[in-house]
Design a protein that fits this description.
The chain has about 220 residues and is of the alpha/beta class. Helices cover about 30% and strands about 35% of the residues. The protein has one domain: Rossmann fold.
Length: about 220
């Protein structure tokens, strides 16, 4: 079975950013919340970069030739709107020559109080022969992430490998994703994993609604 890479198991500066994102008093500063999410994206991009393929590149300097190991994978960074935008930017800061993908997915309520996830819009370049990094700050049930992944594949083909990246995840969501992915072709990354998931699919202790915290409360 596939395994999850949980970054806050190590003591690094990442934990400062996660703490501020959780802190309800700091959350009042939406600009800082977005910046912290971007920083987490940068750190996660660095960690994922260690798992990519590299090739030797000869670089001419003013004094000679230097052999440099550089990423040979063609990367596509895709995100789920709207909450994923600052997280996406963090990845793009590091994978600055990557192609990009954007997917609109939202919860559609049912009369019985439950909901389904509707994937409405997909925009991406081809994924064939590339490395996909699909980023979504909140991994709750895992349903949205898998539906979006399936939609991307239907639209743009199968990548050589897919990395799924979340800031905060529930154990339930992690288990769901791990049960559905091929560990040889997919890797799951989380900055932090929390134990509880409410009946309305909010992670506890979590942070609340990432989209509202980043961009204002939606109607």
């Amino acid at each position: 079975m596939a395994k999850v890479n949980i970054l806050n198991k190590e003591n690094t500066i990442l934990n400062k950013f996660l703490a501020e994102m959780r802190d309800k008093s700091v959350q009042k500063d939406s600009m800082r919340f977005r910046r912290n999410m971007e920083r987490v994206g940068e750190i996660m991009a660095y960690e994922i970069s260690k798992r990519l393929n590299y090739a030797t590149q000869m670089v001419e300097t003013p004094l000679g030739i230097a052999a440099v190991e550089n990423i040979s994978d063609k990367v596509v960074v895709a995100t789920i709107l709207r909450a994923g935008l600052p997280f996406h930017q963090g990845f793009l800061n590091y994978f600055d020559n990557a192609d990009n993908g954007f997917v609109s997915a939202y919860r559609k309520s049912r009369p019985d109080g439950t909901f389904i996830v509707d994937v409405e819009y997909v925009s991406t370049s081809s994924l064939v022969g590339k490395t996909l990094i699909l980023v979504d700050p909140m991994l709750t049930t895992g349903t949205s992430l898998m539906l979006v992944y399936d939609a991307l594949i239907r639209r743009a083909g199968n990548p050589d490998h897919a990395h799924f990246a979340a800031v905060f995840a529930s154990e339930q969501g992690v288990d769901y994703v791990l049960s559905r992915i091929d560990p040889k072709k997919c890797t799951l990354w989380c900055a932090a994993v929390d134990e509880e998931l409410t009946s309305k699919s909010y992670i506890v202790p979590g942070i609340g609604d990432a989209g509202d915290l980043a961009y204002g409360i939606k109607l």
